[in-house]
Design brief:
The structure holds 2 protein chains of 2 kinds.
Chain A (H helix, E strand, L loop, with lengths): L4 H20 L9 H26 L7 H25 L8 H32 L2 H18 L5 H4 E6 L1 E4 L2 E4 L2 E5 L3 H10 L1 E7 L2 H8 L1 H15 L13 E4 L6 E5 L6 H9 L15 H7 L1
Antiparallel strand pairs in A: 1-5, 2-3, 3-4, 5-7, 6-7
Helix pairs in contact in A: 1-2, 1-4, 1-5, 2-4, 3-4, 4-5, 9-10
Chain B lengths: L4 E7 L11 E3 L3 H15 L2 E4 L4 E6 L1
Parallel strand pairs in B: 1-2
Antiparallel strand pairs in B: 1-4, 3-4
The chains are: A alpha+beta, B alpha+beta.
Chain lengths: ~300, ~60
């Protein structure tokens, strides 16, 4: 048994490190509560332990041990439900909600990270099992961490679209960002305030795939949420006029965001929108189909 | 999509409105704006200008 000590130990170490590293890149997904940190680190530890014992248990001909992996999958699906439920419950208190699509995306990421931990632990322990060379297996672990974090990075709006400043104007009571109609604002005082403090950006999709993705309401809500999370908002419960809005130009498919941020800084807003994540659930690719390519020209 | 509710109407033009929703009559534009502002704050709803001297209060 003791010749597995190093194998399993290294696997657990690298798996847990992987989870810690992924927590670090968490800031936009989730506020880093100390207790959330503890929860996810412990689950990461469990996942790492599972991943690192998989190979030794096969080597010992304990094939049933592998069924524990199935149990683990069940357990981590539970993590996804937990994240989804807690974020959905907190939505009520958000002035600018994340939207269900964004929550689903975050929950999925939390589940997937545990699988990545298992993969890392498995790769590290396998490397050590076959080579008996701890330093090499550590290197394998780091490589897997680097590789997965690169693969899992996901796209941001800046990759699929060009974000430019837009100008706010009123046509009668109708608020527009460039030529895109946003909403009807009745109160003259609010109109003045919006013109004074509001900001607008226009998001031009780079291709038809991006256009289809940006049309998704969940994606648009996520953009509004990210912009608000970074620049703040002057909206309060009794001033719905300041609600950030994302509307599209129906003819060309570009998207306009209007918001009344606490910090009026157009550069910061453009940067925030460019870094907003493209949601997995909103991502569309009509150009991958033949019919889509025919329509594209 | 959530349902949007039309909660009240504030009008300068008595002929333009009717029905079973709360209707507030105002005699000047300033009065109309003040009434609409109060209602929107109390009801946590938004004021829209329909254009014919009528403001509607809608919760989105």
């Amino acid at each position: 048994m003791d010749n597995y000590g190093m194998t399993i130990g290294l696997g657990i170490l690298m798996g847990t490190l992987a989870r810690a590293y992924m927590l670090r890149s968490d800031y936009r997904q989730y506020p880093g509560y100390p207790h959330g940190f503890v929860t996810h680190m412990s689950l990461g530890f469990v996942a790492a332990a599972l991943g690192s014992v998989a190979l030794p248990s096969i080597a010992e001909k304990e094939f049933t041990a592998v069924t524990f992996l199935a149990l683990a999958a069940q357990q981590f699906r539970e993590v996804r439900n937990m994240e989804r439920e807690s974020l959905a419950a907190l939505e009520e208190a958000e002035l600018v909600p994340r939207g269900l699509d964004y929550i689903e995306g975050i929950a999925r990421v939390f589940e997937a990270r545990n699988y990545l931990v298992i993969v890392t632990a498995l790769a590290t322990s396998s490397a050590n099992y076959f080579t008996r060379w701890p330093l090499f297996s550590l290197a394998v672990g780091f490589l897997v961490i680097a590789g997965t974090s690169r693969l899992m990075r996901g796209k941001v709006i800046g990759n699929i679209a060009v974000v430019k400043r837009g100008d706010l104007q009123f046509v009668g009571p109708l608020l527009k960002v460039n030529e895109i109609e946003m909403m009807n604002v009745g109160m003259p005082k609010m109109r003045e305030k919006i013109l004074r403090d509001g900001l607008g950006v226009v998001i031009h999709p780079k291709d038809d795939n991006a256009r289809a993705t940006l049309s998704n309401m969940g994606q648009r809500q996520a953009i509004a949420h990210v912009a608000t999370a970074i620049l703040g908002t002057k909206k309060d419960i009794d001033t719905p006029e300041f609600t950030p809005m994302v509307r599209k130009n129906v003819d060309i498919g570009s998207i306009a965001l209007f918001c009344v941020p606490a910090e009026k800084d157009i550069k910061s807003l453009v940067a925030a929108v460019e870094r907003a994540p493209v949601l997995e659930s909103a991502s569309r690719a009509p150009l991958k189909t033949k019919a889509g390519r025919i329509a594209a020209d | 999509m959530k349902k949007d509710d039309l909660l009240a109407v504030v009008t300068l033009n008595k002929e333009a409105v009717g029905g079973d929703i709360p209707i507030f009559f105002a005699s000047t534009q300033e009065e109309q704006a003040a009434v609409a502002a109060t209602l929107s704050q109390v009801l946590k709803a938004m004021v829209h200008d329909i254009g014919n001297g009528v403001y509607i209060i809608v919760r989105h």
